[in-house]
Design a protein that fits this description.
This protein has three helices and twelve strands; from the N terminus they run E-H-E-E-E-E-H-E-E-E-E-H-E-E-E. With about 180 residues, it is mainly beta. The longest helix is centred in the middle third of the chain and has 10 residues.
Length: about 180
């Protein structure tokens, strides 16, 4: 039976002690684990010699996942942007922090932003599927690399603090620095 990988991690290789020498040293190395994940079977091994793990069970090599810290941003593109901006400010009580032609930015109490883009606002044509939610991550470059390794469609070039991508459901999402 294969060891269970830690929730959210992908099993990329599995081997017994006898076949461990076939893996390159980088695969045998212990990867730092995000603090919110508990140790899994692959990390419960004991080192017996430099670069080699001692075990009588199977050893799983796990590709770590990005560390998502929460929702970091939300934006929507709509032909009814003025009505939505009025609703955000006067019904939801969000604080308007920036406005220009076909664009409004509102700040939530925790400092994160909710943004509205009008239909004619440039560069947001990919927001056609509905609101875009940004997942906050601790390490944006590493998280974008993780998306690339997973063959996720990246939309445009990464910005200084964000990267848009298309999820498996066809909707647009975003990673933002936390």
């Amino acid at each position: 039976m294969l060891p269970s990988p830690v929730a959210g991690c992908r099993l990329i290789a599995c081997a017994s002690d006898a076949s461990l020498d076939r893996f390159p040293p980088a695969v045998n190395a212990t990867r730092p684990r995000p603090s919110h994940l508990s140790p899994g079977p692959a990390e419960r091994q004991v080192r017996s010699a430099p670069g080699r793990l001692a075990s009588t069970t199977l050893i799983a090599v796990i590709l770590a996942v990005m560390e998502t810290t929460g929702l970091g941003w939300c934006g929507t593109r709509t032909g009814r942007c003025s009505e939505l901006a009025h609703f955000y400010e006067h019904v939801l009580g969000l604080r308007l922090v920036h406005a220009e032609a076909d664009f409004w930015a509102f700040e939530l109490p925790d400092g994160r932003h909710v943004e509205i883009f009008g239909s004619s606002y440039p560069g947001k044509d990919h927001f056609a599927t509905g609101p875009v939610v940004g997942f906050a991550v601790r390490d944006l470059p590493a998280a974008v690399d993780e998306l690339r390794r997973a063959d996720v469609e990246l939309l445009g070039e990464p910005g200084p603090t964000w990267q848009h991508f298309r999820g498996p459901d066809g909707n647009v999402y975003e990673l933002v620095t936390s």
